[in-house]
Amino acid sequence: MPTLAIVGDSLTEHWGERRSEELKKLETLAYGISGQFASEIVARIPETLAYRPKYVVILAGTNDIACSEGNFLADSVLETIAKGMRIIRAAGALPILCTIPPVNYFHWRPEVQPHGHIVLLNEGIRALADREQMHLIEFYALLSDERGGIDVSYTNDGAHLTDAAYEKMEELLRNFIAKNVI
Question: Which residues, in sequence order, are CB contacts of 102 under 8 Å at separation 6+?
């Protein structure tokens, strides 16, 4: 039974595939499916809760930005994340929000300029965590370069993460778990 579960998209899926041993040491389940939008991720929260984690991290919004056709609505993604929080709370687990990592570009959608959308969504996620008095894990600041994009050592394609990025994220999770798990 994991202490912590992360539900998300390809960032989470790759994390679980490539660093499963490290996540086991953290008693963390990475439950991601590539290409999923926030609404699809939240729809999988009941499956995640079947593992009976104490905490559930929602890592969602990147694909909503990538596939927005220029009509990205941060408020819609934030409402979906808030719905996920309510599902997690109703099941007796504690929801945790996290900012989404920076993206320089989407190689499959080069016309999308993600930076402004990511900043806007992360501002909303921070405000939601503050308003709901929830824990927040700050992946964006952890992986950003001086321009607010993803540091090149943390990505191979502008969007997906390297093991070096996951190692830094695991350290953040390790610190969170040490301070908050009873």
Answer: 115, 118, 140, 143, 144, 145, 148, 149, 150
Contact residues for 119 (Cβ-Cβ < 8 A; gap 6+)? 148
Beta strands in the chain, from DSSP E residues, in sequence order: 4-8, 28-32, 55-59, 94-98, 136-137
Give me the pLDDT at residue 1, please. 79
Whether the predicted pLDDT of 105 surpasses 70: yes
| Residue 72 pLDDT greater than 80, yes or no | no
Chosen CATH of 4-177 out of 3.40.1400.10, 1.10.3720.10, 3.40.50.1110, 3.30.950.10: 3.40.50.1110
Half-sphere exposure of 46 (CA within 13 A, CB side): 3
Residue in the block written with tokens 């992946």:
139
**Cα dihedral 69→154→181→58 (10° resolution):** 10
Find all residues with CB under 8 Å of 80, minimum gap 6, and list them.
38, 39, 42, 60
